[in-house]
Design a protein that fits this description.
Layout lengths: L2 E5 L2 E3 L5 E8 L7 E7 L6 E6 L5 E3 L7 E6 L4 E6 L8 E8 L12 E2 L3 E5 L1
Parallel strand pairs: 2-11
Antiparallel strand pairs: 1-3, 3-8, 4-5, 4-9, 5-6, 7-8, 9-10, 9-11
């Protein structure tokens, strides 16, 4: 069973940067596809970025060139570097893991963290 715990959220002004971390605890972590999702109030959860077990990545069009997803298998950590943040990036950010690779739909992931809030003003 994979457990995920997000950290690093906060409040920032437009144009600023934040770094989100997700700690993972389970042996199957290295074989999992991992992703970041976000959900704004009143909106559906949307995929932000995903990374495969081999390090390949995909991004939502809205964050391309501004966000970078990475994974540190030695530290069992998933990261999301966010720069040039915009008010529309505001939401609760979740990390997710599952057997499928490089997908940005929530139904592809079995394991979820509880989320960390990001507010951009």
């Amino acid at each position: 069973h994979v457990q995920l715990v997000e950290s690093g959220g906060g409040s920032v002004q437009a144009g600023g940067s934040l770094r989100l971390s997700c700690g993972l605890s389970s042996h199957p972590y290295k074989q999992c596809g991992l992703a970041w999702f976000r959900q704004a109030p009143g909106k559906e959860r949307e995929g932000v970025a995903a990374i495969s077990s081999t390090g390949a990545t995909i991004y939502a069009d809205s964050v391309k060139g501004r966000f970078t997803i990475s994974r540190d298998n030695a530290e069992n950590t998933l990261l999301l570097e966010m720069s040039d943040l915009k008010p529309e990036d505001t939401g609760t950010y979740y990390c997710a893991g599952g057997a499928w690779q490089l997908l940005l739909r929530p139904t592809a992931y079995n394991y979820w963290g509880r989320g960390t809030q990001v507010t951009v003003s």
